[in-house]
Amino acid sequence: MVDEEHQAELLAATEVREEPATPVQLVAEAADAGVRLDRYVADQITDLSRSYARQLIDDGHIRLNDADTRPSATLRPGDVVTVRRPIARPTDLVAQDIPLSIVYEDADVVVIDKPAGMVVHPAPGHLDGTLVNALLARYPDITVGSDLRPGIVHRLDRDTSGLMVVTRNDAARHAIQTQQQARTMTKAYLAVVEGRFKESSGIIDAPIARHPTDRLRQAIVPNGRTARTHWQVIEELGDYTLIEARLETGRTHQIRVHFSYKSRPLLGDPLYGPRQPRATFGLTRQFLHAYRLGFVLPGTGEPATFQSELPPDLRTALEKLRARAAGSG
Question: Which of 65, 94, 200, 224 is 20–30 Å from 232 (CA)?
């Protein structure tokens, strides 16, 4: 995440047009009780930073129960938060001609097959070379909220590959965010985890929040945000398992945190896996690929589903796992 001081410097160079964006309404859950309003909004709306949320609250663009309020206001279950952002463009972002794998595009959305190693949006240490820089070069007409993440409505970790949808205008952003909040989007991943399961499928329901002492990690926290992951065994690979994981919610690092919590960390995960893994099978990242994405197209109202094959590094690792399992059997 971009630190607040750096965010403020970038926002200072932003030219804001006057027309308002389509409002987004959020309803606080029981798990949100006592959470500050600025933090809640930043957690709920992926492409909006906490510092910018505070600015919008101060300017009256974010209202609590249809009333002006303060960033430090705390939530109660059932509170209605209305977010109305002015449309703007961050002028500090540089358009860069970086190749993108485009799976689908129309006037409203673009579906991208993101490679591992690509950072989604600028952050300290990654101010260029990101997916956002590439998007600005290919789609210079993208409209954005006054932030550093034009078109970004959900994210993949840097070393997670696979499908993402990007919105090209504010109406499309609102339509996709509405589907995300209603949990009607399909976000399915292929992952290899260490160990085996007694059951063939299940649900992990465990709340997630930032780790209390390590800012780089998320953790299972009793008063954290609701997080649910559906999983199903696809193939047993000796003492490893290939699974499909489907997100019901979309918390940061959700799949990685949930399976680590169940003592089934993802193969190759440097943050949530064992410090000294038994084997890497040639991997330099976690075995996690967003292989299926489904949503209703904002422009037509038609449902669409997209799929992505495993990239070469994960495919090679899977072949090694299969060979090892066959040899030990």
Answer: 224
Domain residue ranges in the chain: 4-85, 102-171, 186-328
Give the pLDDT score at 5: 31
State residue 92's pLDDT score.
64
| C-alpha torsion 11→145→105→158, nearest 10 | 50
Does the annotation count 157 as an active-site position?
A: yes
Strand pairing class (109-114; 102-105): antiparallel
Architecture of the domain delimited by 4-85: Roll (3.10)
Which of 32, 38, 157, 159 is flagged as catalytic? 157
pLDDT (0 to 100) of residue 23: 82
> Model-level pTM?
0.75
pLDDT of the residue at 44 = 87
Evaluate whether 152 touches 136 at the Cβ level (below 8 Å): no
Residue segments in the chain with a per-residue pLDDT below the cut of 50? 1-20, 88-90, 146
Q: Do domains 4-85 and 186-328 have the same CATH topology?
A: no
Q: Give CATH superfamily name and number for 186-328.
A: Pseudouridine synthase (3.30.2350.10)
pLDDT at 329: 58
Q: How many CB atoms lie within 10 A of CB 201?
A: 11
